[in-house]
Amino acid sequence: MAQGLVDGHTKKDGSHRIDDHCPNQAVDGVLYGTQGSRDPVPQDRPVATRTMAPLILTRYTLVSALGKGLDETYRALRNRRSGLRPCDFEDVGITTYIGRVDDVENMSFGGGSASTQLEQFDCRNNRLALLGLQQDGFTQAVIEARERYGAHRVAVLVGSSTSGILETEHAYCHRDPASGALPSSYLTSHRYTHNMFSAAHFVRTYLGLRGPAMVISTACSSSAKAFATAARFIEAGFCDAAVVGGVDSLCLTILYGFASLQLMSRSPCRPCDENRDGLTLGESAGFALLEKSEHADQPGAVALSGYGESCDGYHMSHPHPEGTGAIKAMQAALLRSGLTSADIDYIHLHGTATRANDSIEDAAVHSVFGPSTPCSSTKGWTGHTLGAAGVTGAVIAALSLTRRFVPGTVNTTRLDPNLNSHVLLENREQPVQRVLSNSFGFGGNNCSLIFGTV
Amino acid sequence: MTLYVSGISTLGPGLPGWAGSRAVLAGERPWCEAGRPRPSASLLPPNEQRRSSETVRWAIEVAQEVMQQTKADAREVASVFASSDGETVVLDRLCTELATPQRTISPTLFHHSVHNAASGYWGIATGSQQSSTVLACYDSSFCAAMLEAAAYAQIEERPVLLVAYDLPSPAPLYAARPLRGGFATALLLTRTPAPHNLAQLDLALSNDLSEDATSMDDPRLEAIRNGNQAARSLPLLAAIARQRGTLVRLEYLGDLRLLIRVMPCRSSVKTLSAD
Q: Is the Cβ of A15 closer than 8 Å to some Cβ of chain B?
């Protein structure tokens, strides 16, 4: 036995139940561990039929083109005020719209006693993250969780697709004409800005956390998958709570990149419209604090009750034509939650407004849910925020559950008659108990999440 | 938490795949300087071999060696890919083009720039529709991948292919992140034992920093370990190669240690060795 390892609990049937022994307090420095057994562990559960214990979203928040925090987001959704505007990002010469967050360019970063340590993280992506952390009492809720569990027992799992690449784009414009070298200030800040771990590193540092951390980067499913990893880490006993989030910010790479793929609309995107002609890019930062329900005494609170992950195994940038990967993700989320398709009141679509995504997602949703479950895309409000799309969908799902309404689809005027799912254009006021939210990314990477009220 | 290793691969300077590396890592043969490996990633269809980045080919090469060893069906295996810096050659070309007045980038270049390019290619090459998670954690990326893969194998009850890889960036990005050399490793991990397992791993996360992370005895291998996040796996790979009970300490984010108790399984690793 390894020195310092705590004993695992071996059940009478010989199986190790990993969720039985996650000490809240460190024992001799060990936060999590088991004594190894050479005996075969019986396969005691049929694969993929085990339901998860719901995890409470103790606090959650969102900053996007709709505004800062839950109330501004909700008001924009209720009043059907889209956050999209003609592209005014830097000197970008593409005729399109964007979902830009106001004032990110001018905000001061850091400040206070910890400023030196935090200032090195300064870049558009981490400014957006900071704006998110400052809304809805999120930071205070994390500090309370940190005090409850210990800094080492709170994980940070953040999704991002392009991190702070804008810093590198700028640095390439300021290369030394003779040597081609990048500016020295960039060289020292690269680790804290563009490197893919930057957003989780910043959030962990800002919140004073010392638990497991990583950035998940699976393109547009990144921050949805962060919820799945958080659920596993909590169940595995690697942590007691997790700060889950997603941050992606506007940059030249995505604007010129999606333009090169001819996937970007010249006008505000129109998800599921007969004449939809591509997506609109946006930026957002969203966070949720996830805890086990016994630690979060909040009747009526929102909980993560299921997740499902899959791949298409088909193409880097085109979804599987039959949507088989998307179907697998939705079915896996239902299995994990112990729910059936009839239990879902509303589906928050990935709904990017590209020709391919919306028609293939429609077919996949229809094959799992049939023609009646209301669904909609909110991309016409926020734009497609890529790696932050998963957490954006999660927060909108939480607003739908707590404020008893279902958002419709803005900008869309003529619903594509070839779509067979029940796509809502208008908002609805109605009680909502279970929401499924889809996120699908490049590389054929899919994740569906289910949220409900406790 | 207990896991079993049923397949293993490594690719790095003087470490050309598991068959050619096991004896070196077990201390039975000295490490010899060798040129940079040029993996073909033969699993990829020819046009994808040509179009994919070298980073993708390193990741696919170690992944395919593991799957060939184990004869496992890739369509039944989930995956965790871990890279600190991702597609740096593609990012260099993108940023170079975006710094010109035309800013003309090719669609292929753009969709090859995502951090999950290797994972996407793995799915395309194998047809696997199982979950694939791609993560980054700077110099702790391999460690983070061990946690993610362990939790996935335990809770989702499915074998997990872990692939960790990074190549040095091209100039001028190299100056921002001077990785010493390329390195890739892959492990097939399961929650239940099987007849031909190479090792049993017991994992624990600790905040006791009184003991240093495990280093390599050979200073040249130690230099490789220090020069690339994926090579931080070397003490674990060496313990598996030696087939002796060993406690490996991996540094995780400066304030944590991942402790891995490595125990040999009955069948010998040597059956997989070419030498």
A: no
- d(Cα A247, Cα A103) in Å, to the nearest integer? 16
How far is the C-alpha of A76 from the C-alpha of A67, rounded, in Å? Answer: 8
Give the CA count within 13 Å in the CB-facing half-sphere of A14.
9
Q: Which residues of chain B make contact with A313, given a CB cutoff of 8 A?
A: 123-124, 126-129
Q: In this complex, is the C-beta atom of A192 within 8 Å of any C-beta atom belonging to chain B?
A: no
- Condensed to tens digits (0 to 9), the pLDDT of residues A203-228 reads 999 999 999 999 999 999 999 999 99
Nearest residue, CB atoms, B138 vs list A186, A191, A314: A191
The total of structural domains in chain A comes to 1
Domain span at A306:
55-453
Can the peptide bond before residue B178 be classed as cis, meaning omega within 30 degrees of 0? no
Query: For residue range A381-404, what is the model confidence (pLDDT) as tens digits?
Result: 999 999 999 999 999 999 999 999
CB-CB: which of A40, A253, A444 is closest to B123? A444
CB contact under 8 A, B116 and A182: no
* Contact call for A210 and B207, based on CB within 8 A: yes
Provide the residue type at A201 as one letter. Answer: H
- The beta-strand segments (E) located in A132-283 are 154-159, 213-216, 241-248, 281-282
Residues of B in contact with A317 (CB under 8 A): 107, 111
Residue A32's DSSP bridge partners are: B205
Distances (CA, A) of A369 to A331, A375, B62: 10, 10, 40
Report residue A411's pLDDT band, with 50, 70 and 90 as the boundaries.
very high
Interval B233-253: pLDDT, tens: 999 999 999 999 999 999 999
How many angstroms away from the CA of B25 is the closest CA of chain A? Answer: 22
Q: What is the DSSP letter of A27?
A: B
> Which residues are within 8 A (CB) of A292 and not within 5 positions of it... i.e. 6 or more apart?
A53, A55, A56, A234, A240, A241
**What element of type H or E holds A24?**
none
Q: Where are the beta strands (DSSP E) in B83-151?
A: 132-136
DSSP run (H or E) holding A56: strand A55-64
Residue at token pair 């910890």:
A114
Does residue A227 contact residue A243 with C-beta atoms inside 8 Å? no
Q: What beta strand segments (E) does B95-206 contain?
A: 132-136, 160-166, 183-190, 199-206
> Does residue A314 sit within a domain?
yes
Identify from A34, A191, A218 which residue to disrupt to test chain B contact, counting B C-beta atoms within 10 A and taking the largest count. A218
Q: Across the strands, what pairs with B166? A: B183
**Residue A7 placed within a domain:** no
What's the CATH number where A228 sits?
Answer: 3.40.47.10
CB contact under 8 A, B84 and A215: no
User: Could you give the CA distance from residue B227 to residue B245 in angstroms, rounded to a whole number?
Assistant: 26
Q: Answer whether B208 sits within 8 Å of A29, measured CB to CB.
A: yes
Which residue does chain B place closest to A312, by CA atoms? B129
In order of their start, the domains of chain B are: 2-272 (3.40.47.10)
Residue A274 has a pLDDT of 98
Q: How far apart are CA A292 and CA A239, in angstroms?
A: 11
The catalytic residue positions of A are 220, 350, 384
Quote the pTM value.
0.93
Which of B115, B124, B252 is closest, CB to CB, to A196?
B115
Are A391 and A282 in contact, with CB atoms under 8 Å apart? no
